[in-house]
Amino acid sequence: MPRRINRALLPLSVLAFTLALGGCISTQGIAPHGETLAANSLATDEAIAEAAKDARWPTAQWWQAFGDAQLNRWIDIALQGSPSMAMAAARVRQAKAMAGVTEAAESLQVSGESTLKRHNWPTDPFYGPGDLANTTTWDNNAALGFSYALDLWGRERNASERAVDLAHVSVAEARLAQLELQSNIVRAYIELSLHYARRDIVAATLKQQQQILDLAQKRLDGGIGTHFEVSQAETPLPETHRQLDALDEEIALSRNQIAALAGKGPGAGAQLQRPTLSLAAPLTLPSALPAELLGQRPDVVASRWQVAAQARGIDVAHGGFYPNVDLVGSLGYMATGGGALEFLTGKKLNYNVGPAISLPIFDGGRLRGELGEAAAGYDIAVAHYNQTLINALKNISDQLIRRESMDKQQAFAAESVAAAQKTYDIAMIAYQRGLTDYLNVLNAQTLLFKQQQVQQQVQAARLSAHAELVTALGGGLGAGNDVPNAAQTQAPQTPALLR
């Protein structure tokens, strides 16, 4: 009876001994140190954490606020045909495929093999003289082998979840590439519109200069003007023609840039018509920007998923310190001698099944090194997330400051143009009545031209600032689908930096 008890306890003893040996390699002293910044410390909202669980983006097409159908069409073309978007989509597919490869390790693995070969048995000290000496027989076998990882410590499960997290990172990075492409096209389109507006100013200036030249010539022909006045009126014309040619060049280059961003050649860019968006178009902002918008930023979402992936990596490394138990087995036929297919008969069947245990005992520090690398990788991911969060808040704050400044500058520029236009009109009337010379008209015209240029640049910068702000907020001025609804969370509070 005692012997039977001892035999029953033998498996438990083996398991206890196995676990005791597992303690030979210690994880003591290896742990991550990084901590993600608290949401309240940066005046953010818990929606940032929600974004790590379900990254969904705003569906509104923010560039439609500019009211230009051609811009909308070219952004659609770019999203469908841009090489950068094709690469981003391929990276997403690659990451998903790798996640599938990793997840496959959790499933039952079945493999089959078979060999059919003729074997010549020599007569030598090993085989010796016997029935097979100096004969040639079939030496055949066929087998099905299977293995299943029991994953007692969750190593395989954590590895697959880490791969899924990395796939989410690639999705967020693809969204970032999409947002950058949209922003780049909008900026290039605004620049194209600015070139056309500046060309209008230069063309109007050329027309006025020609009118002044005609007036000076008439005054000379009438005997009340001088050749000097005519020469003064002719002087700025070549420079104005040069400016027109330079702006035509800028327009052609902007067309090429937009076509390249959309994945098209220069021929497609030449088909671009003059933008219909107005540089002075009113673009309103909501009275408050909720903090959830920060969670729409793809870089914040990607960084958060990277932290989650690195945390899983630590769990994977921890699992390597414990015994690995797999259920393995095989079913097959084998025979030496007989006919070519005789090995498939029932009497040649063999099988085996049982657990396979691998145990780390001494590895020269490999497992501790892997755990240390995973812990350091987690700290790096946390630091990167914190820096991304800080940069995101700074970027949003910068764009809000810039947008507010552009609104004020636009008003001041309009006042300057109005004052310069008034000065030019007075000088022109005085010149026509013979109360002043052409130099005053030329100076007033130069000032008006300069102020009009400044006004157009300020208006274009204002549109660009609006586009940059929307991009900094993840592609929309309103909360998208990536934040909890009102039934799941309280109404968001506007952070101090976003008020």
From TrEMBL:
<comment type="function">
    <text>Could be involved in resistance to puromycin, acriflavine and tetraphenylarsonium chloride.</text>
</comment>
<keyword id="KW-0998">Cell outer membrane</keyword>
<keyword id="KW-0812">Transmembrane</keyword>
<dbReference type="Pfam" id="PF02321">
    <property type="entry name" value="OEP"/>
</dbReference>
<protein>
    <submittedName>
        <fullName>Efflux transporter outer membrane subunit</fullName>
    </submittedName>
</protein>
<keyword id="KW-0732">Signal</keyword>
<dbReference type="InterPro" id="IPR003423">
    <property type="entry name" value="OMP_efflux"/>
</dbReference>
<feature type="signal peptide">
    <location>
        <begin position="1"/>
        <end position="22"/>
    </location>
</feature>
<dbReference type="GO" id="GO:0015562">
    <property type="term" value="F:efflux transmembrane transporter activity"/>
</dbReference>
<keyword id="KW-1134">Transmembrane beta strand</keyword>
<dbReference type="InterPro" id="IPR010131">
    <property type="entry name" value="MdtP/NodT-like"/>
</dbReference>
<keyword id="KW-0564">Palmitate</keyword>
<keyword id="KW-0449">Lipoprotein</keyword>
<keyword id="KW-0472">Membrane</keyword>
<dbReference type="GO" id="GO:0009279">
    <property type="term" value="C:cell outer membrane"/>
</dbReference>
<comment type="similarity">
    <text>Belongs to the outer membrane factor (OMF) (TC 1.B.17) family.</text>
</comment>
